[in-house]
Amino acid sequence: MITDRELGIRLADDEAKKMNKRFGVRSAAHIKVEMYAAAFGVKVIEGKLDGARARLKVGPRPIIRVSDRPCHPGERSFSIAHELGHFVLRHPASRIGALCKREPFRPVGPGTARHPEAEANTVSAGVCMPSELLAKTIETATPSLDVTHAIATEYAMPLQATTIRFAELTSKRCAAIYSEVGKVVWAVSSKTFPANVPRGKRLDPASLAYGYVHNGKVDDRARSIAADAWIATDAGVELVEHSAVVPETKGVITLLWIPEATAPPGGVDRRGITLRS
Ligand SMILES: [Zn+2]
Questions:
Q1: Per-residue pLDDT of the chain (277 residues; tens, 9 = 90+)
Q2: What distance in angstroms lies between residue 104's CA and the mean position of ligand 1's atoms?
């Protein structure tokens, strides 16, 4: 059964697709979120904003106020598209807070109720990294940070945002994970990934990401490692981990992939997690 959360996300995704169609987006160069805002009659103003990244003011003259603090240009675009998401989804003013996150694309926690922030992020991801443009690249790629890095360059988005997008759009068994000081801050699994990597989980010393905790370095090539470094399994199989340091936030971004060659899909159970070796 579909939850209210999932239903809201679908509506948000539809809104993003409508926008991409309306503004004739056929390549990364066509993505101009400030122009979209203007077309909706929403003025974008840059200025001081106490602690917040962006804020939407609804009313007869809607305004998106963006902080003038320096940040990655992709974070700025993502924040504007997030606020525009609240606007097009007609979220009640009482349910829209200021966007305060250092990383506006950071996923919200799990749940089943509608979540305006998750919906606004869905609009933003759908507009800043359209599935219409990326689906084929992602589907045919061998999962690795090399792909999400190339997307980050082409779409002028932070690597964490494009790695999340990869996990959202791929049909392969992948997870995007971000950690700081040896703990998982967030994780986004693809629809087919057979496990959840919980927030707050301590990194296993056998993972490549742990290298950053251990000696401030990460072996940033994709490597096969024991699957139980990341997920609960006693099947003795391996998965592919590709990790890299995010210097701006002193964190580590990780993309996990369970190739079919190491564990056939039938051997993976979402509840029991018994990977067949
Ligand atoms: Zn918001």
A1: 899 999 999 999 999 999 999 999 999 999 999 999 999 999 999 999 888 889 999 989 999 999 998 888 999 999 999 999 999 999 988 888 777 777 788 888 889 999 999 999 999 999 999 999 999 999 999 999 999 999 999 999 999 999 999 999 999 999 999 999 999 999 999 999 988 899 999 999 999 999 999 999 999 899 999 999 999 887 778 999 999 999 988 999 999 999 987 766 655 544 445 554 4
A2: 9
Closest C-alpha to 240, from 102, 129, 141: 141
How close is the Cα of 152 to the center of ligand 1, in Å? 22
CA of 192 to the centre of ligand 1 (A): 28
From 128, 157, 178, give the residue that closes a domain. 128
* Cα torsion through 11, 13, 17, 22, rounded to 10: 50
Helices and strands counted in the chain (H then E)? 8, 8
Query: Ligand 1 centroid vs 53 CA: distance in angstroms?
Result: 10
Is there a single domain that holds both residue 38 and residue 108?
Answer: yes
Kindly report the pTM of this predicted structure.
Answer: 0.92
Task: Compute the distance from residue 39 Cα to the ligand 1 centre, in Å.
Answer: 20
Q: Could you tell me how many residues make up the chain?
A: 277
Q: What is the CATH number of the domain that holds 197?
A: 3.30.450
Helix axes 73-88, 116-128, angle to 10 degrees: 120
CA of 237 to the centre of ligand 1 (A): 40
Indicate whether 102 and 189 sit together in one domain. no
- Domain boundary at 108, 128, 148, which? 128
Asked whether residue 274 is domain-assigned, the answer is no
User: Domain limits at 90?
Assistant: 4-128
| 74 lies in the same domain as 165 | no
- The verdict on residue 202 lying in a domain is yes
**What spacing in Å lies between the alpha carbon of 120 and ligand 1's midpoint?**
6
How far is the centre of ligand 1, averaged over its atoms, from the C-alpha of 183 (Å)?
25
